[in-house]
Hints:
By secondary structure, this protein is α+β, with helices and mostly antiparallel strands. The chain folds into three domains: 67-246, Biosynthetic peptidoglycan transglycosylase-like (Penicillin binding protein transpeptidase fold, Orthogonal Bundle); 315-402, CATH 2.40.50.140; 408-570 and 591-734, Beta-lactamase (3-Layer(aba) Sandwich). Helix content is 37%, strand content 15%. The chain contains 23 helices and 25 strands. Strands 6, 7, 8, 9, 10 and 11 form a six-stranded antiparallel beta sheet that branches. A five-stranded mixed beta sheet has the order 2-1-5-17-18, with helices on one face. α5 packs across α6, α10 runs antiparallel to α11 (238-246) and α21 packs across α22 (614-620). It is elongated. Mean pLDDT is 87; it is low at 7-15, 112-117 and 713-741.
Amino acid sequence: MKFNVSRRKALWVGIPAGLLLLGLIVALLIWWQLPSLDRLTDYQPKLPLRILAADGQLLGEFGAERRKLVPIADIPKPMRDALVAVEDADFWTHPGIDLGGILRAAVRNLTHSGPLHGGSTLTQQLARDMYLTKAQTWSRKITEAVLAYKIEQTLSKDEILEIYMNQIWLGGRTYGFAAAAQRYFGKELSELDVGEMALLIGLPKNPAGYNPHTRLLRAKKRQAVVLARLVAVGQITQEQADAAKAAPLQLRRVGRLSSIADHAMEQVRAEVVARFGPESYERGLQVTTTLYAAEQEAAQQALRHALFDLERRQPYRGPEGRVELPAEGFDDELDRAFAQWPDLGELRTAVLLKVQGPDAAELALSDGQAVTLKGSAARPLAKLQRGAVVRLLPQGAGWALGQVPEAEGAVVTLDPSSGQIRALVGGFDFTRNQYNHATQAYRQPGSAFKPLVYSALIEQGAWAGTQVSDQPIEIGDWAPRNYDGRYEESLSLREALARSKNMVTIRLVQEIGPQRARAWAARFELEEERQPLNLTLALGTGAATPLQMARAYGAFANGGRIAATRLIERIEDAQGITIWKAEAPPEPKEAVSERNAFMTAQLLSGVMRDGTGARASQMLGRWDLYGKTGTTNDAVDAWFVGFQRSRVGAVWIGYPTPKSLGERETGGGLALPVWVATMREALKGIPTDPLAPPAAGLTQVGEDWFYEEFTGDAALARIGAAATAESASPAASAASAASEPR
């Protein structure tokens, strides 16, 4: 059958005209049903609760959506141009829809099965994100196109681009490019290099599939596509693209060790939500804490290093898991392994690829790096199967086998005069254990408790030269010992505390009486009911938290007074208006007199010059430090508590379920280096400033200080010889305690 030419032309003209008319009718019907654009014209996104250090550095965020709202003028132009070049080249000229792209997608959808494809513009993506579902249907796509056109009639191009770049989902709970730059690189948008910018620009296409934390190899391939596009449009040179592809991505490590202050942030979060309710997570509240970011990070890193070092001295427990790896093309399997077992800071996850005999093994790291272990470092892997998931730690220029620490720890530092907390580390891994060991863990302080006993005796007239018997003591079945196994006829208080002699401290509690010693500890705000009513109290067998111990020592640094602690300074709303501010703190509470604090501090200075803490003074190269080690029976708890006039800090290390840290582990070996590393940052730039004696109440003879009323013969010359078993608590014989080593 033949058509005449005129009828054929009419048919070809009529079909498109009819389709166009039908499309216009459908579009009008949809237009009348479109939602209001108030959500765009008055854009008020959900903004997370942000926690800041005292210097304004972001510590972390809470909320379903992690977002940082950035005006278009503050988004670097190269990034705006790159996004448009990759996602929507005709953005500045089209009316919200790209007819050519839609036509190409329609042809593809009519000729292929599977999910529908669309030539979505940035405006269409925004319309879908703000108002529609992601269902792959014709009706949704038509509605999306009409809505995009309406948006273009209402908002300017800059307004559309600004909302898009702040609103779009980019993986995890991250929305907007500013938040993504922080999440993936720990940077502001203006700080990104070409490679980092390209990686972020590649995320909108598939945020989950190209997430560099879980799909690094795929993310690098997508980055290469973006870089090629930027070369094609002339935004960067081929040389810049090649350099960006070759450069390793310095990702901000996330997962279980993503924040430098997880436990502190949780404490802040709970307080803010208790004050402002669940809407705190969406209002864009900004909380400024008392924490110093550099000091907080130094404390956290020092504690982790100490726990890693402790773990190196433990037997190897074997791999954490295993993944099946095909003979080749196993990138997806590696990505899944690294997502399930994320890096823990410097403790890197590695997957065993090949064992090359008893002394060599090849492994893959999460950043794509290949590592070969040789010699003794590789021997524990010799019998493991391919795909075993292990841990590696940097060692010199290479790597050593490691494992996740089982022990825990805590660090807390504060300003003794104001009570402001400057660092608060509650444990190794918040995800593993949300328990805040700095504020909640009541542990035996060991010999770190001894200065409180010495302070009590000083109040009765003792001084640094007071002689006390160091001979062995036996009361019933209790026979404590000195750690070094040596016993002197007598020692001065100065020597006894510096050498952490147990017999001397026990005799001091005998002289004072356990009840009075407990009451004296309570003056330093240690809970009296948690201290034993027997002579073992002398060896620190009671219980205190690291924060309590820091505050107690803070009294010696602050003229005998204990300041109320605080962690939050102020809270601002999303507009920067202060809606809550910490009240002026109350006057510090007097624990002991200024002269008592000064004389006790002089004994602690001796510990740092000639005793168990001398290494700290040597490492820091300053002699205005005061402190004491603490190690409990069987090395279950390791402590160091000390101060300089401007900062006091406490460090504790132990297992969550108490058990020995190891026969040779001590407070001086484990906790002291953590304190030193933290104080090195805390005291940076602060000149040496030893404590000065009070204006009245003391007399100095040579290098020694005395209470004025106890000068000379009135001073106690010897304690302990007259002490009897009757002066001890009846419970003493039932107690069991050993010595504190260093």
